[in-house]
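Thread: Transposase, structure

OP (GT): Posting the sequence first so everyone is looking at the same thing. Length is 444 residues per the record. Can we get the structure tokens written out before standup tomorrow? I want them in the notebook alongside the other entries.
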Amino acid sequence: MTVSLIGSPRRTSEEARLDKNRRIKESIKATKAKRKTQTCSTFDLKIVGNKLSSTQREALVRVFLEAKWLWNECIASGDPFSYKPRKNVLVKTKDDTMDEREYRVLGSQMKQSLVKTIRSNIKTLATLKKQGRKTGTVGFTSEVKSLGLPQPETTYRIRGQKARIQNIPGWVRVRGVGQLEGWEQAKAVLTSEADGWHLHVTCYMDKEEHRKRREAKRLAPVKNTIIGLDMGVKTAITCSDGTEYDVMVEETDRLKREQRKLNRKKKGSNNRQRNRMRIRRAYTKQQNRLNDAANKTAAELLRNETIFMQDEQVKAWHRRYGRKIQHSILGRVKNRLTRHAGQVVVLSKWEPTTQLCPVCGTKTRIPLERRIYKCADCGYTAPRDVKAAQTMVWLGQSKYSDKIPLERGEYKPVENTSESYVDNLRMFSMRSAKQETVTASASR
Ligand SMILES: [Zn+2]
């Protein structure tokens, strides 16, 4: 080794470089092959804000600021594909002069990944343009919101409840580490969001192992029941057994208040900036609330063994009902339910669940305002939504039985569906008769 060093040091270093490149290439190839047998998932770890030291906080603010400088310098260079980050960066100041600043926190890997992002953005836009779509350009930015941390154990590292991020002093406390258990960590992204900083970690797991874990984790339906779900704008989710789930989540006063204030703030002022941050934070909270409510409702519904629902168009309701539906979790619940194929059977949207009479089989159109179904042919009456939900069970069992997995065993199609169905409904028709008189007297 010493001989070759003395002999021709330049060649040796060149050889070493090539050797390193070759090794990198091989490991990339090996990783690619491995990934084919793995499932991918990303997990959101939130950095606990009130546990940060002031130096950590400053560093986190600074790293996104420096990222913005780099981004804008790269764009200003006019040729992002040959742009290389330097040690310092030229920054345009408020009075339009250029100022040379030093990178203090932004690491070289983060710089590289930022430039990579710009390049891939440009490429994406170019492809879209080729497809004939209207596109903008990748331009200057006022804020960089995410930073790539490509290498686990180098650019970031997670130990226990804490994470270390390259060039951010010390360890930061993160929430949600439990999700990573059993997963192999790959790249991560550090983001600056309305409610603070997050670390989104991309992870991999062997497909077979993942399947086993999911099987083990899956909660068996606790109730040996079959239900139908009618999703309507007015009464939320109505089950065939008569239970109702409220799907409206109230918009908080804070969000409304802050939104009203925005118009009064001077454009470009610090106050307006702060106000916008508050709106963003309130909005994020609202979204979290909606997701939480949707998770709970879906979990409750999935306690039933088989669920029949209809492929109704939540999007169309959005158009028709606008703001009201924005605070509804209906779409979210539906999305969560449809992920459970086999347990949840989705009926075609063309099935006349509302119109069909279970007694005589004729169809009667009922205007949306009328809450009571009344058959025009035989006079059968029942609460509209409950009846629709029960018709789903009936239709589902007779027409969609092939979609219910047979290995679950205990399930057998009901012999005479319509009979038990009518039996079920008798009590409702009695109740609805009472309701009808109440509404009639109220309208008088
Ligand atoms: Zn009828």
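GT: Both are above now. Quick notes for whoever picks this up: Residues 357, 359-360, 362, 375, 377-378, 380 surround zinc ion (CB under 6 Å). Residues 30 and 346 are 42 Å apart (CA to CA).
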